[in-house]
Design a protein that fits this description.
Strand content: 15-25%
Strand order of the largest sheet: 1-2-3-4-7-5-6
Mean pLDDT: 95
Number of strands: 7
Distance between the termini: 37 Å
Shape: globular
Order of helices and strands: HHEEEEHHEEHEHH
Low-confidence stretches: none
Radius of gyration: 17 Å
Helix content: 40-55%
Number of helices: 7
Structural class: alpha+beta
Amino acid sequence: MVGLFWEKDDFDVFSIEGLEKRMEALQNRIQPKFGTLGMHFADRLSAHGTDEFFPHVAKHARRTVNPPNDSWVAFAPAKRGYKALPHFQIGLWGSHLFIILAVIYENSDKKGIAERLDSKLDVLTSLPGTYIVSGDHMKPEATTIEQAGDVGLEQLLERLQTVKKAEFLVGRHLPSEDAVKFSTEEFMAFAEETFDQLLPVYDVVINKQ
């Protein structure tokens, strides 16, 4: 694999007006790249030895009016569906690329996950300070771990326990202007490094002994 992986046009897809035209651009430009990443990183995550991971490229099939503002490929230890499980994602907003571990509102073990992470907060605080955390996967904004500090992390985890729609995301954001400079090899290395640093968090999330 040579050349650049991401291009400016990939991020510009999210400024295309109209559901049909944006979906057509997503399907033609971005989903094939998600498919490539899906095969590569499902194997790499499976090699961690916890579970067998399967890729899920977002199809946005339920949308009938509003075009998607972001898109992704998710990785989870299930062939059908991933939203109820802790899962990894590589995705794009118009402004940036993200590589995250996500616990979203469909998860039924949010209380247990929050308690485990709170009791082993160092698994989060030992990540690079530039890594991000967020409580809502529907919003592009996030806070760095350095900005959040122990107090901010504990507040996010408390919210995960007590608020029905609360979520917890942790990972890495890469501005679009930086992503388009990465060669394929550089981007793959960047993503591999990110997953390697998130896997210890995943082990706590799933209560791996």
